Amino acid sequence: MEPIFRESIIALSSGRLPSGVAVVRMSGPHVRFALETIVGSVPTPRMATLCTLREAGRPIDSGLAVFFPGPASFTGEDIAEFHLHGGKAVVGALLAALTRISGVRLA
């Protein structure tokens, strides 16, 4: 059955900020494009990949990206996790960069 919603959603999935490390999770049809845009490529599935998270070529932070391809994922859709430093400004910058991608919204 075809999913009803064609948007991708993002949310902070770790604890309250500020923290040592934050995890932002994304689920939906725009995950691969978001990874290519923010990380530069789609990481090897289920392998944490060290990368620089970027928007328009400018670094946001260094961290880890993990890709879980659907349908063998938590939601049945493609999922990305971004593990980054847990400062409010850094997480806010990543969330803002992701939501500027067409079809991506906060959960």
Task: Give a brief outline of the structure.
The protein is α+β, with helices and mostly antiparallel strands.
Secondary structure blueprint with pairings:
Elements: E1 8-12, E2 19-27, H1 31-38, E3 49-55, E4 58-68, E5 79-86, H2 88-99, E6 104-106
Parallel strand pairs: 1-6
Antiparallel strand pairs: 1-2, 2-5, 3-4, 4-5
Structural notes for this entry:
The protein has 107 residues and is an alpha+beta fold. Helices cover 19% and strands 40% of the residues. The protein has a six-stranded mixed sheet with strand order 3-4-5-2-1-6. A hairpin with a 6-residue loop joins β1 (8-12) and β2 (19-27). The longest helix is centred in the last third of the chain and has 12 residues, at 88-99. The chain is globular and about 30 Å long. The two termini are 22 Å apart. The mean pLDDT is 95.
Structural key phrases:
single chain; alpha+beta; 6-stranded mixed β-sheet
Distance between the termini: 22 Å
What is the 3D form? globular
The share of residues in extended strands comes to: 35-45%
Largest sheet: 6 strands, mixed
Count every beta strand, where a strand is a DSSP E run of 2 or more residues. 6
Give the C-alpha Rg. 13 Å
The quaternary state of the protein chains shown equals single chain
Low-confidence parts lasting 5 or more residues at pLDDT below 50? none
Number of helices: 2
Mean pLDDT: 95
